[in-house]
């Protein structure tokens, strides 16, 4: 059950946070100070060093549940600290003593994927975290070499990460997967076509997300924009799932595992590019059979 709370004055990034009203899952209490979030000392040092003094409203509500392994849907408008929240949580959950990929972050644009990687490296400066941005337009060879040298975090755009993940999958021990979804951005339609193509290709090789589920999600703001367009998107997704399942069953040439993977890829492609917030919830439901690691869905209210 969601409970509406108003953020307290001067408890975050400043005046722009003060008037925000949050609808938050019952039992989720905002934690105003980074000190009280149980963050590693080195991470706290990096956070303060970066110039953050107090957590932003979304950080107050999302960081601790994510760190505790809870699936989270977080919505906040641009500039409220979502990217930094991803960086904080990833730096906290990654075990830097191990050299395996433990966090995968998908962003809809190259700029955002690079930005996320930079913030992780800056906030995590004292933690020895190794992050790498896998984005189109950069050398695939360099990406592969980086991944072979074992990085902890991959931040990328969907097409490129599919490829890299396919090649390095045995190295991946995922603790969390995060998607930063920018809805209603200009290239939505082009991207939709492109991502779906990339997802299809990846499903032929090896999927990026093998098992995804959302259990007991923490709702950080009310999902809005439930409209006909969204319903149409959701129903097209469901139809696609049915068709895929049927096709695979009929041909019987493909394993049960591959069916799951293909479905998740499809959900994922629609999910990243959909033009509305309520779809996130629907996509979660669609992939809810595949439990393995934490799923965090982020999207701004524009
Ligand atoms: N707790 C904080 N204290 C001070 N500054 C912060 C804090 N969190 C984030 N910021 C700063 O606020 C700006 C926006 O943060 P961030 O990019 O994380 O927000 P966002 O919600 O992801 O924005 P967008 O949707 O535009 O990507 C950045 O300059 C970031 O460094």
From TrEMBL:
Coiled-coil ranges per UniProt: 171-254
Helicase ATP-binding domain: residues covered: 63-164
EC nos: 3.6.4.13
Motif (Q motif): 32-60
Listed GO MF terms: ATP binding; hydrolase activity; RNA binding; RNA helicase activity
InterPro entries named in the record: DEAD/DEAH_box_helicase_dom, Helicase_ATP-bd, P-loop_NTPase, RNA_helicase_DEAD_Q_motif
Purpose of the protein: RNA helicase.
UniProt remark on domains: The Q motif is unique to and characteristic of the DEAD box family of RNA helicases and controls ATP binding and hydrolysis.
Name listed for the protein in its UniProt record: ATP-dependent RNA helicase
Organism of derivation: Gossypium anomalum
């Amino acid at each position: 059950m969601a409970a509406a709370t108003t953020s307290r004055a001067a408890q975050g990034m400043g005046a722009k946070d003060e008037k925000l009203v949050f609808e938050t899952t019952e039992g989720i209490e905002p934690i105003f100070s980074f000190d009280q979030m149980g963050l590693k000392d080195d991470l706290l040092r990096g956070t303060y060093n970066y110039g953050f003094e107090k957590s932003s409203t979304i950080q107050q509500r999302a960081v601790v549940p994510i760190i505790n392994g809870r699936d989270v849907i977080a919505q906040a408008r641009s500039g409220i600290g979502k990217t930094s929240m991803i960086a904080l949580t990833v730096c906290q959950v990654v075990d830097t003593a191990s050299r395996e990929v433990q966090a995968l972050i998908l962003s809809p644009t190259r700029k955002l994927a690079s930005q996320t990687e930079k913030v992780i490296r800056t906030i995590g400066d004292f933690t020895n975290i190794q992050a790498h941005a896998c984005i189109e337009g950069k050398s695939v060879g360099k990406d592969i070499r980086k991944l072979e040298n074992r990085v902890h975090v991959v931040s990328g755009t969907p097409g490129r990460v599919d490829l890299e993940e396919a090649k390095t999958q045995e190295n991946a021990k995922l603790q969390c997967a995060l998607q930063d979804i920018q809805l209603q951005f200009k290239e939505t339609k082009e991207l939709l076509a492109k991502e779906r193509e990339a997802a299809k290709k990846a499903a032929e090789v090896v999927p990026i997300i093998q098992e995804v589920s959302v259990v007991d999600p923490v709702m950080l703001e009310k999902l809005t924009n439930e409209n006909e367009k969204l319903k149409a998107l959701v129903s097209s997704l469901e139809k696609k799932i049915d068709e895929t399942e049927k096709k695979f069953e009929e041909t019987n040439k493909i394993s049960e595992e591959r069916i799951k993977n293909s479905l998740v890829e499809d959900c994922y492609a629609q999910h990243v590019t959909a033009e509305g917030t309520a779809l996130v919830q629907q996509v979660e439901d669609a992939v809810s059979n595949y439990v393995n690691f934490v799923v965090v869905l982020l999207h701004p209210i524009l």
